[in-house]
Specification:
By secondary structure, the protein is of the alpha/beta class. The chain contains 13 helices and 17 strands. The chain binds N-(iminomethyl)-L-glutamic acid (NIG) and fe (iii) ion. The site of N-(iminomethyl)-L-glutamic acid has 13 residues, from helix 2. This is Imidazolonepropionase.
Length: 388
Amino acid sequence: MTTRLITNIGQLVTNDPERDGLLGLISNAAVLMEDEHIAWVGKATAAPDADSVTDAACHAVLPGFVDSHTHLLFGGDRANEFEARMAGKPYAAGGIRTTVASTREAPEDELRLRLAGLVRELAVQGTTTFEIKSGYGLDVDTEERLVRLAAEVTDEVTFLGAHVVPPEFQGRADEYVDLVIGPMLDACAPHARWIDVFCETGAFSTEQARRVLEAGAARGLGIRMHAGQLGKSDGVQLAVELGAASVDHCTALSDDDVRTLASSDTVCTLLPGVEFSTKQPYPNARRLFDAGVTIALASDCNPGSSFTSSMAFCIAVAVRDMGMTPTEAVWSATAGGAAALQRTDIGRIVVGARADLVELRAPSYLHLAYRPGVPLVERVWRGGELVS
Ligand code: NIG
Ligand code: FE
């Protein structure tokens, strides 16, 4: 057994519901890690001895970010599409097919190498848990390859065969759904924990989404959903009805959707990078918090609608443009993400949790929003190991 102490922490964000405030702050704190878990949390003056000691120089320390929504596996990029959007062209779901073409062409080793690069990018920015969706293969072999590669780097793998209808099934969406819930699900379910569907005009209808999600649930997969990105639909109602862990985007919501979410266990995951990169109106997080909805913030890192891997950036935008307080944004990017993945071992610095911590080169978590674009992450521990 190895013990490691981080001491002289100026401000510790614990997210411990037993402590005061949403973030359960402790000043002049220390944390003891025992192998991969947290063994003690408290005031530095009362800290136990340890095999090694790290001086956090009065910096802020918080739980590692939990990015509960990414699409990290793809070939090519769509920088040109982004450039056109900044010049006024609207975002449309159809762009996904461009990435499907490059992903199908990419050799497996190239996909693995690119994924490793992005995983490193996340780690140095303080993300210690991330989900990965498939969805740029849309045939049985490529979707299987994507979920298998994702499972090499995370336990949080989501099968998103129902991302859009691929070109070879154009005009035959229901037949494509048959493929998704038949042979594709057979090939992908063994590698995945979750099933997801893009329920939106230009992607899948609510009825098609129901077929996909029910088939996944029957195979033991948990439910997540993309809904309310480009317009209102009954996708949110379906997500709650089916007991989804999370419904993601939620930019366009009716009052009824907000009430339904508030009275459910389904987390609402907001993705600020999407509105930033598509120039669409931001969701109103204030309305959701005030109604009592549990909110997660995630990057949605993907080559089309949001090619950022920075949770700090998402926090800054959520505070600047979505009506979140810095406290709510930091909670949503850590404990909120853990809730969206139905995990109790991450997102909090409490005894027994996995030792995933981020030290900022700053005295307070406020600096995450206050100093946008500045790389503030000093050190990152994942499962008690220093990873950056
Ligand atoms: O979450 N909305 C659907 N899927 C992705 C976008 C993927 C793309 O444009 O390539 C999203 O925003
Ligand atoms: Fe997405």
